[in-house]
Amino acid sequence: MPRNPSPRGATPIAAPEVPLHRRPVVWFATVGALLMVLGLTLSGPEGEGEPPAPTDAEMAATVTPADPPPTPVAVSAAPEPLIPPWKEFRVRNGDNLSLIFNRAGFSDTDLYRVARASDGRSLRRVYPGETVAFQADNDGELIAVRHVQSPLLTTLYTLESGGFVATDQVREPERSARNVSMTIDTSLFLAGTAAGLSDAMIMELAGIFGGVIDFVLDPRQGDTIHVLYEELMLDGQRFDDGPILAASFTNRGETFEAYRYTDLEGDTSYYNEKGVSMRKAFLRAPLDFTRVSSNFNPNRLHPIYKTQRPHRGTDYAAPRGTPVYAAGDGRVIEAGYTRPNGRYVFIQHGEQFETHYLHLHKLKVKKGDRVKQGAVIGTVGSTGAATGPHLHYEFLVNGVHRNPRTVHKILPKARSLPEEELPRYLAAIQQPTRQLASLRNAQQLAAAE
Length: 449
Prior knowledge:
By secondary structure, the protein is an alpha+beta fold. It has helices at 24-42, 56-62, 97-103, 108-116, 188-194, 199-208, 422-428, 430-448, and strands at residues 86-90, 131-136, 142-150, 153-160, 163-170, 174-183, 224-234, 237-251, 254-262, 268-271, 291-294, 314-317, 323-325, 330-338, 342-349, 353-363, 370-371, 376-380, 390-397, 400-402.
């Protein structure tokens, strides 16, 4: 049905407009009425066509602006929990774990709880120079201990539900190949120091060649040494010496070579270019020396007694306190003091050989001890009938004194690698052999220029 038009000239009276959101009942009623009108209109008689589109005024009357979205409230992020700081203590001389824990403000009970979890690890004993750090919670309760034993090894003890748990943190240094060449002017030690080698590496070098060279009398001015070795690096800085990989020593025109090799049984040692061990039955000189003051002389005039007495050994003059080494593996058969000998050590090596060490300052072994070649058995002194600090060294074969300087010529031969392992060894030393040859050639060319 057609809608009734408004009376001519009639003007609808607009009531004061009240926001619908302040009158919820009116708002719902209005929306419901509009939905009813629309439903009646859409359900009118067929053929009347589509209903006319609502006018702008009708749209304005039916659409109510939505409430503005609420202003977002900024929520501040929760602060990250603070990590308790570490308190670090360096171990000093005379320190023990109880002192260090008390210094850090913790009790012996705390120490017991941590040490119980060490499982045989290092915290049961500390050494000067190491560091021990502690971490506590906000209540002051111990929750972690860090024991730095070296730049390569740290043990961390952390508190868990069942108590403290120990974890080792191990770092591996990087290995860097190095080589050095040097010429002896006065001594091996000074030549090595000038070339930048550490004292420990110089002594290792002397130990490698100690069975074939007597560093007291054999070296001559102009002798040359070439060394291939590894240097251990940590965080881009030199940390320590690595092993000597190969070395050559040219003495009076004769060249001795040594190569580091691990055999099929896992033993690592040094061998010459033919696979013969560099480790001989006896050292040519049994100490770190400075000079030889007296050689073997059966008709020497004794400097104290002023009598013609045989000098059945070699005297090595050296500063008091210089370490004295066992010349070979054996058993200490005598160690004590007499007025002529001062403090002394006698070592039996198998059935045939015996070595004597006299005028020692201090003894490091006692009768019955088993010793290995190179073990420190005492230190140089001037006890007994001695005019100054020196080592008197004797070598006996079947009870007869022999010249220590030449006795090596009748000593047993050094061990060689088995024939079946020799090809493996020769293949392993090919590269260091070429490197040593190259270093020798370069030094010879430099000397010729």
